[in-house]
Amino acid sequence: MPDDTSKRPVIRLISLTILVLLAGWAGYLWLTITAGPGEFSSATFLNVGQGDSELIETVHGRQVLVDGGPGDQVLQELGEVMGSMDRSLDMVILTHPHDDHVGGLIPVLERYAVDYVVESDQSAETSAIMKKWNQAVADEGAEVVFPQTGLSIDLGDGVTLSFYVPKVDADYEESANHRSLVIQVQEEGECRVLLTGDIDIANEEELIASGLPLSCDVLKAAHHGSKYANTQVFLDAVQPSAVVIPVGAANRYGHPDPGVLDRFSSLPIYRTDLHGRVTVQLSEPVDIGVQGD
């Protein structure tokens, strides 16, 4: 693994404080960092083909990677966004254990120094890819956090990650999609980006019934724009100003579904297969840029 000397010069980790308070379904994880300044905090949807991968960066250099896509394309994307000399990530989050989300995280753990891994409890998972993932996490030595609904991670600079963990019932025991972590990327208490993993219609109904505030500036279309999610009632609950669809070109699943695209038609739609990398500026007013801008 790379040592601390491989970090880019403008980022210097001065202090790291963790405070975890769990009460029932609520929790709080506090991270403190002093580092070199950037222009603004952002969430970047990386172009990793038919998969999901998002890099969250704060003004003062906190870096969190959510999912890694299906292969090692994420390494090239991270190199272009973070710089080739930066070989550290503060946190890696796995929303659920499917190849198109976890596959790229394994080479990420092999190349980058990672302090924390956040993942849902997938202790029953015995797939080959999850065995590789679990071994990579163990080899990395990162601290592992299993979030519960209500966990909030403060990244500094007004940016927090708020988690919702779907309930698991007998009908969906075998569905990893149904267990996807849902993450609100908030800035100054306002939801800027809603990351939905591969949740399905039942999850969307569960989220609405939970009474949690869902309104958010930018919605990541669930499951690459699948027809088994992205309902009109969920769209009405979130009320996004724009939609981002991470998806591979000419994929065999037919994502995004034409009916879902029609549902989104009144909104600006950004697709990684058409636009490449998509970056959302988290500060007000929220701004969205695409690769090549």
UniProtKB/TrEMBL annotation:
UniProt-listed SMART domains: Lactamase_B
Keyword line: Membrane, Transmembrane, Transmembrane helix
Keyword Transmembrane helix: yes
Domain of life according to the entry: Bacteria
CDD domains the record matches: ComA-like_MBL-fold
TM region(s), chain numbering: 12-31
Gene3D superfamilies per UniProt: Ribonuclease Z/Hydroxyacylglutathione hydrolase-like
Record domain Metallo-beta-lactamase: where: 50-248
Any coiled-coil regions, as ranges: none
Record-given protein name: Metallo-beta-lactamase domain-containing protein
